Amino acid sequence: MEGSESIDFMVKYGPWVSIKKMSIDPKTTPQEIVLHLSTIRQSIDRKAFEVLGIDTKSLDELAATFTAGKKKNYGTLGEVLASFGAKDTKAAIEKATAGKENLKKIATTYLFRSLVKSIGFDFDVTPEELQKAFPELKIPKPRGRQKKA
Prior knowledge:
Layout: E1 5-13, E2 16-24, H1 30-51, H2 56-67, H3 74-82, H4 87-96, H5 101-118, H6 127-133
């Protein structure tokens, strides 16, 4: 169809398969488009680090220990980031990258993002934040994971 608009995202890389499609018509709201784009971004974010061979699970666990019991506010952000340069952090990054020097800065970026997210902040528009701002939006559930009637 000439003039039709859509968003199509498809990946098949090893065991990772992600297909996200959306047809856009005159009734489609900008919020629906942004919601769809944000779900694509979430799919990509974690996988990008994993595809490089970074152990994101161990870095998420480290971030969780740094932020355990902390309030979710800006004051905590400074406190948590102060622990970021600790010796334990460097050892965890070394382990998460299997000692690959070229991945350390990328793994550090992942850990930084994970720390910030652990205290309730994010760098991007998330589906959850969009749904809070626009309660009428429904986050689509992945196929195969929906409850059977």
